[in-house]
Amino acid sequence: MRTARHVPAAAAAILPACATILAVLAVLSACGPATPKSRVPADWTSWRKPVDRVLNYTIPGHGDKARVIYVNAPGWEYAGGAGSGRLEFPEGTVVVKEIYASGSPAPGEKPVTLDVMVKAPGDPDARGGWLWLVKDMASGKETVITTNFCQACHANANSSHPYGDRNPGGAFRDYLYFPPIPGT
After folding, report:
1. Eight-class DSSP state of 101
2. Longest C-alpha distance within the chain, in Å?
3. CA-to-CA distance for 115 and 150, rounded, in angstroms?
4. Are 54 and 148 in contact (CB under 8 A)?
5. If DSSP codes are grouped into helix, strand and coil, which group holds residue 151?
6. Which of 33, 88, 145, 150 is packed most tightly, with the most Cβ within 10 A?
7. What is the DSSP string of 83-96?
């Protein structure tokens, strides 16, 4: 019987220690890795569009998918003050290109991905001063492109090219095929 009397006392001594350990573990789990902050601002659809139409012709890197482009206020304001010459957008400029499932999205259809350029010259993943990323709209996952794939194609925007207005003057446009139109 002596053993039976000591078991509850021993258990009573262990329970506070277990409770303390569980409380510490709960606090530590709350300090775990945070969910990464989205690099794509949620209000991109309120930004201005450098081209008013849906782009639905085939181009390298985007195929025949419809695209709609938006530029945030810092990028738009900079381009408006820069005139029609060389453009080097300020840090914090964001360009969002909605990519649709087909070349002819239905009214109200949502994009399947967002292809995004974030001007961040100090970021080690930046290429040409820009972070290039893709956001999958179904999962919310954002993937930074760390190869030169996007930059290599967009470098063509910095000279005369076959898209949009064709950059007839061959001005440096900081990798944007459709930069904001000065004065608009």
Report:
1. S
2. 99
3. 10
4. no
5. helix
6. 150
7. TTS---PPTT-EEE
Q: In which element (H, E) is residue 136 found?
A: strand 130-136
Helix (H, G, I), strand (E, B) or coil at 81: helix
b/e burial code for range 69-95 (CB count within 10 A of at least 16 → b): bbbbeebbebbeebeeeebebeeebbb
**Does residue 131 share a domain with residue 53?**
yes
Strand 130-136 versus strand 113-119 pairing type: antiparallel
Structure tokens at 61: 């890197």
Q: Which domain holds residue 65?
A: 44-158
pTM of the model: 0.79
pLDDT digits (tens, 9 = 90+) for 42-90: 999 999 999 989 999 888 888 889 999 999 999 999 988 876 678 999 9
Cα three-residue angle 161-122-129, rounded to 5 degrees? 0
Give CA–CA dist 129/93, Å, rounded. Answer: 11
Residues 25 and 48 both lie in one domain: no
Dist. CA 169–CA 159, nearest whole Å = 8
Contact 116, 95 (CB under 8 A): yes
- Which CATH number does the domain housing residue 108 bear? 3.50.70.20
Nearest to 183, CA basis, from 48, 54, 60: 48
